[in-house]
Amino acid sequence: xxxxxxxxxxxxxxxxxxxxxxxxxxxxxxxxxxxxxxxxxxxxxxxxxxxxxxxxxxxxxxxxxxxxxxxxxxxxxxxxxxxxxxxxxxxxxxxxxxxxxxxxxxxxxxxxxxxxxxxxxxxxxxxxxxxxxxxxxxxxxxxxxxxxxxxxxxxxxxxxxxxxxxxxxxxxxxxxxxxxxxxxxxxxxxxxxxxxxxxxxxxxxxxxxxxxxxxxxxxxxxxxxxxxxxxxxxxxxxxxxxxxxxxxxxxxxxxxxxxxxxxxxxxxxxxxxxxxxxxxxxxxxxxxxxxxxxxxxxxxxxxxxxxxxxxxxxxxxxxxxxxxxxxxxxxxxxxxxxxxxxxxxxxxxxxxxxxxxxxxxxxxxxxxxxxxxxxxxx
Amino acid sequence: xxxxxxxxxxxxxxxxxxxxxxxxxxxxxxxxxxxxxxxxxxxxxxxxxxxxxxxxxxxxxxxxxxxxxxxxxxxxxxxxxxxxxxxxxxxxxxxxxxxxxxxxxxxxxxxxxxxxxxxxxxxxxxxxxxxxxxxxxxxxxxxxxxxxxxxxxxxxxxxxxxxxxxxxxxxxxxxxxxxxxxxxxxxxxxxx
Lengths: 378, 192
Prior knowledge:
The structure holds two protein chains of two kinds.
Chain A: H1 7-22, H2 29-41, H3 43-58, H4 81-92, H5 103-117, H6 129-161, E1 164-167, E2 174-177, E3 183-186, E4 191-196, E5 201-213, E6 222-226, E7 229-233, E8 237-242, E9 248-254, E10 256-261, E11 272-275, E12 278-283, E13 286-291, H7 294-299, E14 307-314, H8 315-325, E15 329-332, H9 335-338, E16 341-347, H10 351-361, E17 364-368, E18 372-377
Parallel strand pairs in A: 5-6, 15-18
Antiparallel strand pairs in A: 1-4, 2-3, 3-5, 4-5, 5-8, 6-7, 7-10, 8-9, 9-12, 10-11, 12-13, 14-16, 17-18
Chain B: H1 7-16, H2 20-30, H3 37-52, H4 60-79, H5 86-91, H6 93-99, H7 108-121, H8 124-135, H9 140-147, H10 151-170
């Protein structure tokens, strides 16, 4: 197990072990000697240790959250949302209406509001009276501002029930958090609509590619509609890509999803269950499923970090991939070079680096135009 | 504090660690394999620290980023990496240095917010241990009694929790450092 960890992970784990041991109250002379030896052994050890120690000292700020809570009582998650919310309004002068803010921001506001009204649905069973009291006091103080925000929140909520649209331009990349806690990453040139109802979390992928990190909620399936297909999940992570020719690609990195055809009686194929590590390509009625190792499936999702990754990819496919991200398109003029195999990691918007390497490494000439780049055999 | 906490220790905590998030962003940008970034970070830190035991640099932040760039350049040469666009990105460093604002420390309120979010992402038991130990100041034995755990379990939760807190405070550190402690968290996104 340990061998799977990177060097820095092992160092940090060891440092954390020493840190907790030293704080345990059961520290002996022998421990001290061993600890000193460990500190001396490598500079990296010492650094990892002082870093954790500094973080622990810094974390003393958390004591602010414990004000008014009896010792030994652990408040439920997010009990500080309201106070933070209050401070946010006053100190940051955040606009009271979140409607026009970025999805991330409005959603943040929405979440706070859900906490404020619905409150302890997600709370654990610990006593919260002190926190509640504090909360009420804060509410009284902020009542006016709060009303304005609640109004904004409802407007936002209403908008969401009707469906919220998120789009990215060519070369864009964006993260969206939905009200249910699910997170969506939108790749270049993508358009989706999200409709959350009591029965279903419905996402329509009109164009492009998106990665879904689905919050668990078995009562409301999370369904991505792509043309005449639907991809269903309960709590999992997967990506869906819609291509121009109605081809759909699904990459599952965690959990499982179901891929099914929608309302097409002539297609008798049963839904396909896709497990983690699966890459499924589906055109019209067929589904081509291939099982990859987890890292390879993950690699197909490098776009989330702004990279495209090629492994023994034809130049034609690599070029097509770059063209998704850039408005100045690359065109391959000679069939002869289309099948050259390339590999590597590239920033998706850095076509120049890619082209420079192609030119260096292969018999390819490059003609740079304003609107497009032409590749020829040389 | 570490016994005999030396000048470089205090200097490192005050002048270098606050740039960690930014440094990780830089390394992630110039290094193609994200999984290797924590190890690179560790190497940069070691170089910085060892050099600081001899002389402290005048402008720690610039020194840090130049060290990082040189390290990446060394690695690229050594590993003969050809298919990444590193040359261009390394030069962008100049821009990065110019972009650095003098006041990088986040406000106390932002800091508290990040910490409270990190706390809430811990598993129930780990979160409870961190709360009792850090907020309530209970000893390991007291925390163990209250939670009905044995002391060893409390200790191991503490060791995992402190790593998650460090990530929240400094923003970088080894990947998956919260593994096992942040189970059930739906927020494993890298937004860098």
